[in-house]
């Protein structure tokens, strides 16, 4: 008998009503929206969405370039945060799951080298290109790094409407402790998708963590288990998601060693490669 792929969920299983990806990943991350220092934004982050991208009810759908290991799969890539801060929009409270409400979104943290929103946009577009090259349809939750992106609940709703096989949300932390460094992967204790989505998200998180270690970022010294996986109940996009979903904190932007790694284009490309491998492994 043919073994059922880990994430081969039916379209009916993936339909939902309200969702979100979101918010600051840790209580110690920069709570206030932060804009990047002058000249700190990554060059790739200022490029518009590719010409082949077409709007998909709040997201940007990138058509596959060829058949491959991910042919027929739909992957949502969420570049966390917004390109700019809007107090009027970002402070609005939206559903976050588990009876919680959270602020719509922020522009994330930053250091002297780069901003979080530009960092994650650069990795997200690289990841999207690699996934498309393997035959996946990729949906980005925001079209560029120049405006105010969707609120955290709308970002996951984009994935749910798309009938996604899985969701990867990209972030970087802003912990100010001098001892806090390394990546961690966040999963939810409960999800709209139920125990199956939780189990599959945990499997995806394991593959993502392995990819980050191979890329050269150590696991977190301050959050998560021995694998670098942290289970939480306050992240909107994980709580409210029906497809398997994880949130990756690629490193701590306030730690000098992590900041130096994250500022290097070759390292960011390795991260995108590690995430691509994690998706392929998970969807086998």
Question: Any overview of this molecule?
Answer:
The protein is of the alpha/beta class and 284 residues long. Helix content is 31%, strand content 18%. It has eight helices and ten strands. The chain has helices at 11-14, 87-90, 116-133, 152-162, 194-215, 236-239, 256-262, 265-282, and strands spanning 54-56, 59-62, 74-79, 93-97, 100-103, 137-140, 166-173, 184-188, 229-232, 245-252. It has an eight-stranded mixed sheet with strand order 1-2-6-3-7-10-8-9, with helices on both faces. A two-stranded antiparallel ribbon has the order 4-5. Helix 5 (194-215) packs antiparallel against helix 8. The longest helix is centred in the last third of the chain and has 22 residues, at 194-215. The chain is globular, with a radius of gyration of 17 Å. Residues 1-53 have low confidence and may be disordered.
Keywords:
eight-stranded mixed beta sheet; disordered N terminus; alpha/beta; 31% helix; 284 residues; two-stranded antiparallel ribbon
What strand order characterises the main sheet? Answer: 1-2-6-3-7-10-8-9
The percent range for strand residues is: 15-25%
- N→C terminal distance: 16 Å
The global form is globular
Major beta sheet, specifics? 8 strands, mixed
The assigned structural class equals: alpha/beta
């Amino acid at each position: 008998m043919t073994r059922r792929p880990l994430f081969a969920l039916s379209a009916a299983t993936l339909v939902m009503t309200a969702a979100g990806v979101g918010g600051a990943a840790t209580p110690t991350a920069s709570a206030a929206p932060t804009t990047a220092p002058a000249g700190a934004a990554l060059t790739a982050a200022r490029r518009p969405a590719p010409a082949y991208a077409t709007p998909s009810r709040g997201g940007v759908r990138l058509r596959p370039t060829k058949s491959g290991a991910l042919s027929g799969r739909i992957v949502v890539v969420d570049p966390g945060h917004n390109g700019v801060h809007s107090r009027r929009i970002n402070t609005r409270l939206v559903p976050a799951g588990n009876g919680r409400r959270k602020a719509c979104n922020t522009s994330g943290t930053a250091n002297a080298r780069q901003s979080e929103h530009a960092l994650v946009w650069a990795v997200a577009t690289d990841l999207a290109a690699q996934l498309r090259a393997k035959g996946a349809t990729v949906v980005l939750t925001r079209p560029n790094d120049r405006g105010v992106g969707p609120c955290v609940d709308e970002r996951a709703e984009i994935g749910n409407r798309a009938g996604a096989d899985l969701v990867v949300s990209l972030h970087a932390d802003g912990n100010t402790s001098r001892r806090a460094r390394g990546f961690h992967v966040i999963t939810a204790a409960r999800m709209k998708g139920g125990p199956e989505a939780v189990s599959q998200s945990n499997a995806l998180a394991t593959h993502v963590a392995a990819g980050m270690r191979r890329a050269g970022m150590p696991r977190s010294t301050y959050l998560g288990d021995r694998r670098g996986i942290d289970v939480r109940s306050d992240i909107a996009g994980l709580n409210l998601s029906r497809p398997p979903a994880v949130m990756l904190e690629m490193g701590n932007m306030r730690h000098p060693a992590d900041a130096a790694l994250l500022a290097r284009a070759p390292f960011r490309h390795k991260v995108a490669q590690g995430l691509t491998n994690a998706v392929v492994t998970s969807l086998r």
